[in-house]
Amino acid sequence: MREKIKVGIIGGAGFAAGELIRLILQHPNATIQFINSASHKGQKVSHVHPDLEGECDLIFTDSWEDDVDLIFLCKGHGQSSEFLNENRIPKRIKIIDLSIDFRLKGNSRKFERIFIYGLPELNREKIRNSDSVANPGCFATTIELALLPIVSECQNDIHINSITGSTGAGQGLSVTSLFSWRDNNISTYKVFEHQHLDEINETLLDVYANFDSKLYLVPIRGNYPRGIFSTLYTKTYLTEEEIRNRFRSFYKAHPFIRINGSDVYLKKVINTNNVFISIKKHNDMVFIECIIDNLMKGASGQAVQNMNIMFGIEETAGLKMKASAY
Length: 326
Description:
By secondary structure, the protein is of the alpha/beta class. 25% of the residues lie in helices and 21% in strands. The protein contains nine helices and 13 strands. Helix 1 packs across helix 9.
């Protein structure tokens, strides 16, 4: 039996880091060596993540250790590259970054590491052979998974609505993340210009070099804590049966994808790493729904899935959770 994977976490105070800590604590093949948070140095991790009381006795540190096999970077966007600029991580230590910093090709050249885009349903073998992985964005995950099997058959522009929970905005204080603002409320933001569009377009071009459809993404702030519900429609000459067959074939070897025959709703995926995809055809338009938990498959769950692949263990290890049905 192999030794447990020794894990370090940089930036351990946020929502994604909290979820990651919970997953690693319960993981059969991994253990946490340190959790870094400069702003909470010396505090118990359970003081920042109260649900871990009695589960985690670790203390936040403002340093890091090199006696690990893997480091998760859970710092804010722009801060991961800053951390790697200031700290030389030995090549023997694998890295999974949860920020936007290395998702686009070429962004990692100056760090002497090539970050593989960490969407397992597309790049599983590249991830398996990589020492550095850039975890996809949460919106990007749903939209790419909804399009990859039929990207070569999209006949015109693609219109997307994605509604996300408040945890997608992180723990930083802002008016639009306050309960008093979110409750009984809804709004759009970054319409047609969300930062995840660059990685989505790059990913789809990798799959189909002639992809030239425009993506019109309307992100929506939802009045609930977690989950992403993406709906999209575009023109295709494929029949509904042909589309379903393409999806089933594309994802047949991927354990977290569910091609749904009935309506989807967020409670099917909350607290799991699962993805539910629903497909309907209306005349020559295909309508696709894709749902995930933004803190799981949209962040920390997918990061653990990538860890499993990188270390050659069961892909679903530590990720067999039951959804919140009620």
